[in-house]
Each structure stands twice: as C-alpha cells, then as structure tokens.
Specification:
Length: 494
Amino acid sequence: MTESPQPTPEFRERALHDAVNGLRERDPMASASRAFVPWQRNLLLAIAAVAVVCLAFFPIPTLIVATALSTIAYVLTLIDRLIIFRRGLPAEAIHTVSDEEALAIPDADLPTYTVLMPAYDETEVIAQLIAAMSALDYPKEKLQILLLLEEDDTTTIEAAAAAGVDEVATVVLVPAADPRTKPKACNYGLHFATGDIVTIYDAEDIPEPLQLRRVAATFARLDPKVACVQAKLAFRNGTQNLLTGWFTVEYGVWFSYLLPGLMRIKAPIPLGGTSNHLRRAVLDEIGAWDPFNVTEDADLGVRIAAEGYKTAVLDSTTLEEANSDAINWLRQRSRWYKGYLQTWLVHTRRPVRLWRQIGPLAFLRFTLLLAGTPIIACLNMVFWFITLTWLLGQPIAIGQIFPPLVYYPALICLVFGNAVTIFLNLVGCREGRDPRLLLACLTVPLYWLLMSIAAIKGCWQLLHNPSYWEKTFHGLDEPAPQPGPEPEPAGVPR
C-alpha cells in the first residue's frame, strides 16, 4: 500500500505559494492572472471607440470594411487548416512504437514516471480510475501515481478511501485556495513528484496499458529537444447520442491529422488537457503550468515552442468520456474558448519577442488557431443572422455591405469552406471506423451553432471572470457495443 504524504505545514505553505505564484513571480507577463495588460486594454478600447464613431457617421463603409476583414480571416483560416491537415495525412506524421518495441525495453532502462491525476467531485469514476491505473504496464518501483484531491472535497476523499485507491495511487490533498483550477492542483502535486517524466490523466481517462512504455521509447529515439509527447485522445461513448458523435468526429480530425500536421510544420501545439507526457527537467525550466489559465495545456504548448523545444504526437490512445449533455458540453467548450483567448493575449503581450522566437509563419498560425478559433465561432452567429435576414426580407442595407470584392470571397467561404469542413469530418468518421458516426458528420452545422453559443459565453466570461474554472461533470456516459474494425482501404494514407 502507498502511504499518503504527510507534509509539514511549512512545506504545504511553500508548495501552495509556488503552485499559485511560481510562474507569476518568475515572469509576470507570462501569467494570465491579469486578462489584459494596460496596452492591450487601451488598444481594445480605442478600437471599439473608433468602430462606434465610424459606425455612427459612416455606417455602410464601416460595415463593408468589417465584413471584408472578417472574410479575410475566414479565407486565411480555411487555407491554413487545409495545409495543416495535408501535412498531417502521411503515416509518418505520428510516431509509432510497436508492442514488441515497447515491451523489449528492460525495466532497468525505463525512466522514472509520475502520473498526476487531478480530480474534483469525481466520486462516480473512482472505481474506473483504479482499474485504469492498475492496467498500466510499467514497473511499479518506477511508477508514481498521485491522485490530487482538494482538501475540502470530502465526498471524493471518502469515496477514494472506501474504494482502496491507496493500493494504486498516493492521495495528495491540495489546500483549498484560489484559483480553484486544475493547473494549480498539478503545480502543487509537482512538489511531490519524483519521476523524470510527468504526465496528466483525468480521473475518467482509460489510457492504453502500454502508453508509458511507448512514450519512454519515443523519448529515447527522438531529439533531446523534444520536451513533450502528446498521446491521442478518443471517446469510448461516441455513439451515445448526436452530441457525442459530433465530439468524437471532431477529436478524430484534431488528434489524428491536425495535431500531427502542426508538429510537422513546427508550429506551437495546443496540448490536450490529458495524456501529455513531459520531461520533468523542461517542465521546471519553463515554469510548469499557469494556475490562472483555464486551458493550461494550450499555454504550456506555446511556451514549449517559444523556448525552442518540440512536441511529438504518439499513436497511443487514451479513452475519455465525451460530454453527452449539452449544458455540460457548453461549460467545457466555453472554458476552452476562453482559455484559448487567454493564451493568445498572454503570449502577444510581447509580440515582437514571440515573433522572433517562433518565426512569422508560426506566429500567424498561432494567432489563427488560438484567437481565430473562438472569434470566428462568434462571427458565425453574426453572419448566420445576416444570411437569415437576407433570405427573409432582402433588405437593401445587407446588399450594400457585400460589394463584389467582398461578396465573391464570402460566397467561396460559405460554399467551399462548409464543404471542406464536412469532408474533414467524414475523414474523422473514417478514422473512428464506425459508420454510425455518419449522421454526426452530415448534421455538423448544428454543432457549429453550439460552438458559437459557447464562444460568445467564453468571450463574455473572459471580460468579467477570466480564471473561473467551470466544472465538467463525468459519469454520464453509456458506452455502446462497438463494431469490429473494418479493413484499411488500399492506397489511402492511414
């Protein structure tokens, strides 16, 4: 049995201070403890003021310019997404370690490993957590599993004790202090970590049993500058309902093609919130996680790239639970969008420095991905409203804000862009090898509507409650029997 650590009050106080303030004291400009620094706030207010004045005195020209700028953003995002997808298609875009290679590594040659498992109000998945961690194929003497529980989360603490979690993990009680976020818990847990490699699993995760060995083999074969190995994420309840189907197809495209494409073009990679495996030495060097950023994984991925390190994507899958409830999904997705904007704002506080660190093309991609994704999701709602208004009444004003130079690129985005997006979803459906996801692919515009609502909510929260972590509830899945794998079509990459 693994005994829970009993730190002294002095150690707890120091660890908590570092968990909350470590990055902020190391580099205040790198912390999201402030959503906007003064020049960003003043610039945004100035742009808003100019827009209002121009709209009041020159309404049509102002709307034409706004529509043109939005169309340019759509076109650039579409082109860049296609380039990234194309680069992620070849099989070599994802690192592969066979079972034989993973098992051939002598236990003595394996690095020490720490698994951090932050959990809050997760009583419903404790038994699953124990089973998933027990299934990991890694020498016990080199594997440390830390279950990070908030000290005032008595229900989860009691459930963990009753389930015998101490047989597989060490329980670390995180002091109840703001910000109440996952990255703060991970930073606190890092003070107890002893592994050379550190990874994070969420409490509901089911990692493939050989994943840690595959990661160790990947680190051993790659450049020492590779600081992180990101495993793929997939859902075990993808066919539970239409929402989980949309979510599953989206993840299929993201983790199987877009992330590998970003890796190959050496752009900053927004890490997944789980199954990212990090060299402990690099984690200490760059300041670990930002406790005030609600997508600490995306922020860490950018800092890894900015410091000259690399991320690799590994063909090893961790199964998660897809949100099957729309309100629960909106909580999670609005937090992601808010965190993307937080990350973009933090890293553009010194734009010239970031430009020089990662290069101009990577800087553009970073902006299109982290700022463009939530902003375009918000703009979608505006353009859908404009389209609906035109269809219902064809007001003259709408025709005036779409002169030919704006109208035709916008039309291309509407027709070609939507078709391409649906095609990418069909590729994601193929990746999941489940024809039952086809309906999700064909009805994906309804998913975009949910995304737009989540983006608007996330932008609003960024203004009035930027570091608030909205809890996503788990244990709502109802896994359906999965069909057997279909044969790979000949001549098609992966």
